[in-house]
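For the sake of transparency, this paper describes our internal protein records without simplification. Such a record has a labelled line for the sequence and another for the backbone structure tokens. Nothing more is needed to write down the fold, since each code stands for a local backbone conformation. For reference, a complete record is included directly beneath this paragraph.
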Amino acid sequence: MHYLNLDEVRDIQIDHNSDCNLRCPQCARTYKGGTIPDLPITELTVEDYQKMIEPCVKNLERINFCGNYGEVGVSKTFMPALEYIVNHKDFNGRIIINTNGSVRNADWWTQLAKILGNNPNNKVAFSIDGLEDTNHKYRVNAKWKLIMNNAKAFIDAGGNARWDYLVFGHNEHQVDEAKNIAQSIGFNNIRFKLTSRFIDELNYQENKDIDDSKKVTTRKSKYVLGLAKENKFRPKSLEQGKNIIDKYGSWEKYFDSTVIKCKAKPIGKLFVDFHSRVWPCNWVASGMYHFGKNQQRSELHKILDYYGWDFNSLRHNSFDKILNHEYFKESFCSSWKGKQSDAIPRLTACARTCGEEYEFSSIIGKNKIDINLKEKTNV
């Protein structure tokens, strides 16, 4: 089965750069409060976007800047790249930008709003996990007043903004106040995200149940980041994880046997990383630089060793050639019926994110509560 033809590509998610101003403890780029040792610090260029966008621009419905490793606000090449996309005569889709908002100044955010202003469906999602006394516990190094000033500048300049809020035990009591603040500033939406971040590689390797709290080390101090207590803020994946251990005996057996129903293929989705490598989705690509003993990293490196490390690079191949490569044309979809031990492995990311019995993702999945702030609603 062919993953996607070029004319079927409707949604591209992009990790524009690998650098970030924050050190969120459960982020793929963070290790012992700092940055993972072998993560290259780099970013895409306008030339990369020309090779990425031009071949499929007429069918593109959405471009989503939401990376596994980077924050676009720190990038020097992001604004020129964004202007290239917005000004492309054949691009009629919408743009979503995910950010922590704790970077740059009000002038930069005002400019961003003006660039995005040609389409009312363009949106910036600000990841703010709590209020002034709690946001920094997960968003390590974030500056509350700077975030609020930047968000207000963006909104006042006509920008369409959403507040994304990861719900933990330390901030669940603040959801109503966050909703009120968001409404007063002018956010159009707030999204409460039920985090699956407490189910990690250690759980997979050692077949552990999910701890209700984990001690997270940052550069400056230690916090205990716990799961939310209220059931409505606890993702289905927690109970599902326990059921998987009971039923299969191990995560490995589940990953090797669950029926995979891809959530990205039906919406025409692809992911492009900061090296301009094309992957089926962000979850497939997420383990590329995971540190230490990590199954997802090993699987991706196995694929790159097999096909060559440039087989999916837009800097070495055309978009059409990549999507007609053996991996995208046959091997990737065939791997859903294979095993993790195969030469082209069934990916842990596919089984975890799109397996039938486990709802991992708060983005593709259903582990979220969306509220339209222009309507009267209760959380």
